[in-house]
Write a structure and sequence with these properties.
With about 160 residues, the protein is an all-alpha fold. It is built from 7 helices and no strands. Helix 1 packs antiparallel against helix 2 (about 30-50). It is flat, with a radius of gyration of 31 Å. The mean pLDDT is about 80.
Length: about 160
């Protein structure tokens, strides 16, 4: 039996027994969904071991550790690792900036712009009816513009009788 199997097989058995314990606790609490998940958790390490994927992961970790042990950390290698770290930081900062920046409104395609030439941009009515519409809007308080998604959600809630 190879050295990897002397470690991997007992680890798989322990993980399968932990999955069995998880399944037993879920069964006693009456959670059928968690029971199914526990059975999957119990079978996963056995499947990884029998398919050889666990051995592949073992060999990969060993290769990385060998690389670390045998590589003389020169300036070039440290510079490359620093660039990889900077790459990860910039990626995360970009994700935060993307989440916090406001969305730009989508512009109308050219076909819709040309179709709406004779209509007011605010009301969507023909330009002749614009003066009557503007006098009506002057008397009412101007409401803040609502996001399209929020307007759709509000319409669904009103349709169901929820205010």
């Amino acid at each position: 039996m190879p050295a990897a199997d002397t470690w991997l097989l007992p680890v798989c058995v322990v993980l399968a027994l932990m999955g069995l314990l998880f399944t037993g606790v879920a069964w006693r609490r009456g959670r059928p969904g968690r029971v199914v998940q526990g059975i999957g958790l119990m079978l996963a390490p056995i499947g990884l071991y029998l398919s050889g994927l666990l051995r592949l992961a073992w060999d990969g970790v060993g290769a990385v550790l060998t690389w670390i042990a045998t590589t003389a950390f020169s300036t070039v290698i440290w510079f490359g690792l620093g660039l990889l770290g900077l790459c990860a930081v910039l990626w995360m900062v970009g994700a935060v900036v993307t989440r916090r920046s406001p969305r730009r409104p989508k512009s109308l395609p050219e076909s819709k712009k040309s179709a709406n030439k004779g209509q007011s941009a605010v009301t969507g009515r023909p330009a002749a009816a614009k003066s009557a519409a503007t006098s009506a809007t002057r008397t009412t308080a101007r409401q803040p513009e609502v996001d399209d998604d929020m307007a759709e959600i509000e319409a669904l809630l009103k349709a169901r009788g929820i205010e």
